[in-house]
Amino acid sequence: MAPAKSAPKVQASSKAAPVKKTVPKPVTGKKPPASAPASVKSKSIARKTSKRSKTPAAMKPAALGFQMPAEWAPQEAVWLSWPHNYASWPGQFRPVPYAFSRIVSAISRFEPVRINAAKKLHARAKKMCAKAGADMTRVSFYDHPTNDAWCRDHGPIFVKNPRTGEVALTDWAYNAWGGKYPPYDLDNEIPPSIEKATKLRRFVHDMVLEGGSIEVNGDGLLLTSEQCLLHPNRNPHLNRNQIELILRDYLGVTGILWLGEGIVGDDTDGHIDDMTRFYKADGFITCVEPNTKDENHKILAANLELLRGFRTPAGKKFDIVELPMPRPFGFNRQRVPASYANYLVINGAVLVPTFRQPGPDARALSIIGGCFPGREVIGIDCYHLIWGLGTLHCLSQQQPASGITA
């Protein structure tokens, strides 16, 4: 993720300027530097990631009893990727590692933190985390070089067999949100690297899929957006039915719910974790924009109407909690996709992004806290982080606890 601004000359990826998005038109912001259009590139890149070998049909995770747990299920650890790419926060990188260290510190109070980073970054990163107050007995660094910091999308998506307690990981093709921000070769190596580090089983599919584009309730349902999963810069060779079948086979879900477009300024083409989340098996917390003059108003109102029309497998309406957006702001006249829905649920707590807006921030903490009784609600200042066009959920990926849990 990186805003559209002149960036330092670095050999690294960056997320480009957010653009107003419609379905199914391709992104019109920065174009991939390669000659092929994004819609073609996305098809080929899924085949070109290193050592990708598609899991045999008989070994698909769902057929073996695996399913993706809800985020509020017990966790063994949270994975992060240390920020180092100046181009992802042009002109604003200096405070980013400090903000990131505070995230590490907050998570380490409740569970282990596992961090992907090139070996050369470890010493300074450890010092920064320790200075931020992290419990360093719970913080582990792995020599896993990355192109960028967005672990939700380049990391594995974990699944678990509730009968045996085995945890495994699913490894999907990653093309930096439709080929926008090459290179991303190192990011594609994170799932196999985590496989080696954890000794967990790995299931591979060549469909492009980012963790931030999906949300599950742990009880068979998956929520996503048409704008992202049906975008031609992801999997132009797959239609909706084919995508749904793959999600069922690899994430163990039985039903898929589709929303429309994502929020303004989101360069991921409508990631669900910036607008609507499950907070329980039959409940959504969803962003709303009360200001009718704001571009997000119609987008979020349309999604709210879709949510009201959804039914649980038992035929009941979902409980819906409305979460007002922060006041719009940006850097260098570029609006950023600030959203309170980009919170992270961990063992015993919920980390909520805040944006130096006392009233809206306090309201969001109260609303989200009400959805997760019994968990400590912790606001994390993400004012500088959002210049990279993502915050807490975008930066993290939870690993479920192994073993049979209630």
Describe the structure.
- The chain has 406 residues and is α/β, with parallel strands linked by helices.
- It has one domain: L-arginine/glycine Amidinotransferase, Chain A (5-stranded Propeller).
- Helices cover 26% and strands 22% of the residues.
- It contains twelve helices and 18 strands.
- The strands form six sheets. It has a four-stranded mixed beta sheet.
- A hairpin with a 2-residue loop joins β13 and β14.
- α2 crosses α3.
- The radius of gyration is 19 Å and the shape is globular.
- The two termini are 37 Å apart.
- About 12% of the residues have low confidence.
Q: Report the principal-axis shape.
A: globular
Enumerate how many helices there are, as a single number: 12
Span between termini: 37 Å
How many domains in all? 1
CATH architecture: 5-stranded Propeller
Order of helices and strands: HEHEHEHEEHHHEEEHHEEEHEEEEEHEHE
- Ranges where pLDDT stays below 50 over 5 or more residues in a row are 4-50
CATH class: Alpha Beta
Secondary-structure class: alpha/beta
Number of strands: 18
The CATH superfamily title: L-arginine/glycine Amidinotransferase, Chain A
Helix content: 25-40%
Mean pLDDT: 89
Radius of gyration: 19 Å
Share of residues in strands: 15-25%
Strand order of the largest sheet: 3-2-1-18
Main β-sheet: number of strands, strand sense, barrel status?
A: 4 strands, mixed
CATH topology: L-arginine/glycine Amidinotransferase, Chain A
